[in-house]
Amino acid sequence: MPGGLLGIEGLDRTEIESILDRAKSFQPQQTASRKSDILRGRMIVNLFFEASTRTRTSFEIAAKRLGADAISISASGSSVSKGESLVDTLNTLGAMRPDAIVMRHAASGAPHFLARHLPTPIINAGDGTHEHPTQALLDARTILDRRPSLEGLRVAIIGDIAHSRVARSNLFLMSKFGAQIVLCGPASLVPAELAQLAPGVTITHLIEEAIRGADVIMMLRVQLERQHEAAFSANEYFQFYGLRLEHIGRAKPDVIVMHPGPINRGREISSEVADSQRSVILNQVENGVAVRMAVLERILNN
Ligand code: CP
């Protein structure tokens, strides 16, 4: 962890618990002051080769709240658009001696490759279909704000699991803490081998079955940008896998509904559910800042 954060799979429970505990202390309701000097004088570069609203902004806010300097670079505004390779871009940025690089890339494993080439700590902000570690951490923080433990929780993850780095990171995290994870979606988006990724994972292709008795429902977007052709129309998908109010009664009465965003209303989730009392979607966004503060502090202040 001090050398960066590439994924949840390689973290142990103690490391995860320590980040989640520290993130709690950074939540707005726990702290009077929004700003500190913990990382004063440090420089963090956010390098995003894919679009992002939540992750990029919250890393930038997190860095600034800790007193660090942060700059954000997108591929379209960098020399990548002139044909510069990933390694040359990273070597160039590394030569300016930032203290950490936060990176999102469409290729699975890109941050791991760079971490082997650069001495600078790399934080994975989402690599292809592989992992999105800080999303899983903020999701866990959001659940633990409402439940005493992840142990024994029934967590239904519904949607395009095959292309989801959020699903993978959550699956690794939840399974380390003894949650029961039910993956659900059409067979083309939920391949059977995903059940082998971690203990406690089962698969169903029926949304009603996934939701029955669920403590947590995590909805995922269909990632059209990672598919060669869409197998379903938006209407057809919503009919079979869209979360609607009528589904919620099958879950536990205090079920929480999550979504990493961006949400597609009327495709994977109805507006009534997204805006309901059961939805914690904006709490997830809020926790994104606190969790990323905890991660930056842990990596840069050791
Ligand atoms: N959840 C998430 O990664 O959102 P962004 O793509 O907006 O960063």
Give the termini separation. Answer: 10 Å
Number of DSSP helices?
Answer: 11
Number of strands: 10
Strand order of the largest sheet: 1-5-4-2-3
What oligomerization state is this entry in? single chain
Identify the bound ligands: phosphoric acid mono(formamide)ester
List the defining traits of the structure above:
binds phosphoric acid mono(formamide)ester, 302 residues, 36% helix, alpha/beta, 11 helices, 5-stranded parallel β-sheet
Summarize the structure.
This protein is α/β, with parallel strands linked by helices and 302 residues long. The chain is built from 11 helices and 10 strands.
Question: What's the helix and strand layout?
Answer:
Blueprint: E1 4-5, H1 13-26, E2 43-48, H2 54-65, E3 69-74, H3 86-95, E4 100-105, H4 110-117, E5 122-127, H5 133-144, E6 154-158, H6 165-176, E7 180-184, E8 201-204, H7 207-211, E9 216-219, H8 234-241, H9 245-248, E10 256-258, H10 271-274, H11 281-300
Parallel strand pairs: 1-5, 2-3, 2-4, 4-5, 6-7, 6-9, 7-8, 9-10
The chain binds phosphoric acid mono(formamide)ester.
Report what the structure shows.
This protein is an alpha/beta fold and 302 residues long. It is built from eleven helices and ten strands. The longest helix is centred in the last third of the chain and has 20 residues, at 281-300. The termini are close together. The model has no long low-confidence stretch (mean pLDDT 94). The protein binds phosphoric acid mono(formamide)ester. Residues 52-56, 126, 135, 260-262 line the site of phosphoric acid mono(formamide)ester.
